[in-house]
Amino acid sequence: MPSLKDIKNRISGVKNTQQITKAMKMVSVARLRKLQQHILSFKNYFNNLKFILSEISTLNSVSGNIYFDERDTKNILFIIVTSDRGLCGSFNLNLFRYLENEIIPEYRNYFDSENVSFICIGRKGYEYLRKNKFKIERNYLHLFVELKYDISIKLSKIISESYQKLKYDKVYIIYNEFLSTAKSTVRCKQFLPLKISDCTQGDKNLCEKYILEPDTRSLIQSLTPKYLSSEIWQVLIDSYASELSARMLAMDMATENTKEIIRLLSSEYNKKRQDSITREILEIVSGANALIND
C-alpha cells in the first residue's frame, strides 16, 4: 500500500505533467493561429495559379510535355509526410493505417516486385518505413522546425529531375489535409504526371480576353515548376497545421485526464490521512482508558 508521502509525490508529479501539457497546448494554439492565416492566403494564390495553368493548357496542346504525358507505369514514388515528434494523438497512426489498408492493397503488384520507393518527410514516417523494410530513397528530418518556401522549391526540383530521367513513372503524395481545427483527413494526391487540365472546363476564347506574352507553350514551361513547388508547399503547411491541431487536441485531453487523476489521488490521500488521524485518536483514547482503569 502506498504511504501518504508516496501519494503526495504522485500528486506533485501529475501536477508537473499538467503544467507541461497546458504549455504544449498553448504553444500549438499560437502556432496554429499564425499558420491558418498563411494557409488561407496561400490557397488563394495556389488556386489562381492552378486556374491559369489549366486555362493556358487548353489553348496549346500539352502533348509531348513530360510533366503532363501519361506513360506506362513501372516505378512508383510515394512521398509520405509525417511529424518529427509524437504527442499528437492519431496524426501519424491514421496515415500509416491508410498506407496499409488502402495504398499497399491497391498497388500490391508494384510492392511485390519492389518497384515502389518512398521519400520520407518527418522522423516518424522514416522510422515506420525502415521498420517495415520499405525502399527509402531520401528522408528529410526536422523540416518543420523552420519551415520555409525554399524547402518546397528544392524538393520539387529533385523530384521533377528524377521524373524527367524516367526514374519514376508516377509520383504520389500521402499527407494529412487540414480541414479545420478539429478535423483533418489523410489524402493521397497524384503529383506527377499533372492533371490540372481537368480542374476547369477551359476557355477556348481566352486569347480574345487576354494578351498572352510570351507564347502559351513558354508560359506552360515557366509556370509548371512554380506550380509543382507550390503544390509541395501546400502539402507541407497543410500537414503541419494538421499536426499542430492534433497535438492541441491531444494535450487538451491529457490536461483533462491529469485533472481526473489529481482528483482521485487527492481523494485517496484524504481517506488515508483521515484513517491515520482516526487511528491516532483511538490509540490516545485507548491509552487514556488504560491509565484510568489502572
Give structural notes.
The chain has a five-stranded mixed sheet. Strand 4 and strand 5 form a beta hairpin. The protein is built from seven helices and five strands; from the N terminus they run αβααβαβαββαα. By secondary structure, it is an alpha/beta fold. The mean pLDDT is 87. Helix content is 63%, strand content 13%. It has two domains: 4-22 and 251-286, Helix Hairpins (Orthogonal Bundle); 26-250, ATP synthase, F1 complex, gamma subunit (Pyruvate Kinase, Chain: A, domain 1).
SSE arrangement:
Elements: H1 4-59, E1 76-81, H2 91-106, H3 108-112, E2 116-121, H4 123-131, E3 136-140, H5 149-164, E4 170-180, E5 183-192, H6 206-209, H7 216-293
Parallel strand pairs: 1-2, 1-4, 2-3
Antiparallel strand pairs: 4-5
Helix pairs in contact: 1-7, 5-7
**CATH fold-level label of the largest domain:** Pyruvate Kinase, Chain: A, domain 1
Shape: elongated
- Distance, first to last CA: 37 Å
Radius of gyration: 29 Å
Structural category is alpha/beta
Helix proportion: 55-70%
Q: What low-confidence regions span 5 or more consecutive residues with pLDDT below 50?
A: none
Strand content: 5-15%
- CATH-wise, what's the superfamily of the largest domain? ATP synthase, F1 complex, gamma subunit
Q: Supply the CATH class of the largest domain.
A: Alpha Beta
CATH architecture identity of the largest domain: 3-Layer(aba) Sandwich
The helix tally amounts to: 7
The largest sheet, given as strand count, sense and whether it forms a barrel, is: 5 strands, mixed
